[in-house]
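ASSEMBLY PREDICTION REQUEST
Request ID: AP-0331
Submitted by: J.K., bench scientist
Number of chains: two
Total residues: 683
Priority: normal
Notes: Please return the full assembly, not individual chains.
Input sequences:
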Amino acid sequence: MKRLLTTVGLLAAMAAPAFAEPTKIGVITTLSGPAGYLGEQARNGLTLGFAAAGADVELVIEDDTRDPNVGLQIADRMLNEEGIKVITGIIFSNVSGAVVPETLDLGGIYVSSNAAPSPLAGAKCHPNYFVVSWQNDSLHEASGAAAKKLGYTTAVALAPNYQAGQDAIAGFKREFGSEVTEIYTGVEQTDFAGEMAQIRDKAPDVVFQFHPGGQGIAFLKQYQQADLLGNIPMVLSEPSYDGVILKAVGPAAVGIAGTTHWNADFDNDASKALVAAWAAAYPDTPLTTYGQQAYDTGLLIGTALNAVGADDVDALAAEIKKANFTSTRGAFAFGANQHPVQDWYLTAIEADADGNPMIVTKEKIREAVGDVYAVDCKM
Amino acid sequence: MILIVEQFLNGLQYGVTLFLLAAGLTLIFGIMGVINLAHGALYMVGAFAAAWVTLQTGSFWIGLPVGLIVAAGVGLAMEVTVIRRLYARDHLDQVLATFALILIFNQTVTLIFGRQPLFSQVPDLLSGSVQVLPGLPYPAYRLFVIGVGLAVAVGLYLLINKTRVGMLVRAGASNRQMVRALGVDIGRLYTAVFALGALLAGLAGIMASPILAVQVGMGEEIILATFVVVVVGGVGSVKGAFVAGLVLGMLDTMLRAFLPGMLQGLMPGPEAQALGVGISSMGIYLMMAIVLLLRPRGLFAAGD
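STATUS: Completed
Returned structure:
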């Protein structure tokens, strides 16, 4: 009996390497605190994206709690001890600013599904650093271009005082071109009564604000309560009016204009497949661009893994660079700094049959644009 | 002129919210000697309960009392299970225990409600604006919050100064051991005070919920300013919480509103903004430092 067991055990041990182990992908994202739902979107999107690509992966998901130190510790552990070579998932630019350089120094690949701060897009670009979402500034340049196209000449721009907020106002100003009053809010601030008073005092043609997550909810509610909603138009970039924000704000959001690189009403097959898969897997969670970006990231990495596997990091990076996948946004290509070159659209928030806000795509306002930092990248 | 009046009202509204939170916290700290970091969690519980009930029933006026009852109930449960064991212990033990409570509350709310913020809006009755000055439509709801806060201040004044229970509260705040030695059931007094503090914190959360986002961790945003108010006003003094709350609320709002603009006259745009925002977020702490230098025990004595 003992000999039989030993033999069986040895056979099983010998057979094990014949089954390929799934590739581990490190996912560092924000799952706790007020912005926790953004990480939830990323996690869900990545899961669906890898499944759609048919890739055999195991997602190792960790919560960075929006703290760069925590993110750094997690990245160190993943790269040094767990043999992970590809990391993705960070939502916030301050965490990204710490984790990405560390990942690249330790020989890993980082593919961003959201944060793409300007310091890493120009001179500090790297062959192992890819961005699938958009470069931070370009996200808001689209809003600047939209505001200019709609004929406004004076604006008040508000954003929280951290890297992504500064990128936001810089991007908006760059494309808007005319007079902009900048107001920086606190990173944890949720009461904007003071800022509402300042907007009323300045009486601009248009207001632009970048406040993701819970801050966005508070801002929109207070904008309506301060009686500014019908009086001073607002143009928003994607993170300030995602599906979860709209669901929490309700009718107070109707009438606002926005810009986006993707919307759930897009007509291509990949997008429709995403919308259907999401509705089936997560029916109670609205699909936002965070989820869509993570889905595209999963598709991209998954397709590359299927082609060359994860053994050689350089070969994998080269394969990812080819961007050989069908994106949910239609046209997709990498620029010189490995950030996307894509189209941007104007949207309007309209009331649906129940009076709840929904995002309707109106027209394409920028075609095949990258970002201003690509010229500084000498790769 | 309009801008100044509007910012004044904003400061008043923020000050009143701080007062609601600080009144409970100062009583708990002053009478029971317990540093309750989890006070912000009670603020969050009140907001979530009211927002959820409002969603289910469609009426804010049903959500409001239910939210208050839930907040007081949770406070009561907290006192009986955890806080009761902390009275005799070191402040550090109390900080550790109540910090753990914050984490537990945050995760429990995430388990029950998920990670997405809840929808809450201003009730229809108050959704308009009032022409406070010609050309200044001020949100009616914020005026309501100011009104409620001032009414609670009057109510607490009457409770603390004109009733027997209030007398016990004041006595307990100035000399706990003596009250006990005189035969008063101190345990019941403590529980009642804690429940009252929880009720006030819950009320602050419910008042704030239509304006801000009802999200996990919303208590942490305001608890630091609340502690500053308690310290500046004098631990154990509700009058101190009122005065300090209003003063700090005004100071913080006015600094954030006008300092960046004033600095912009002196230096280029982004630097002025950054410096202005930095100094104004320091404002209330600078004030605390100055007050403590002049009056180390805060503005008012315990039991006022």
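REVIEWER COMMENTS: The longest strand of chain B covers residues 129-133.
SIGN-OFF: pending second reviewer
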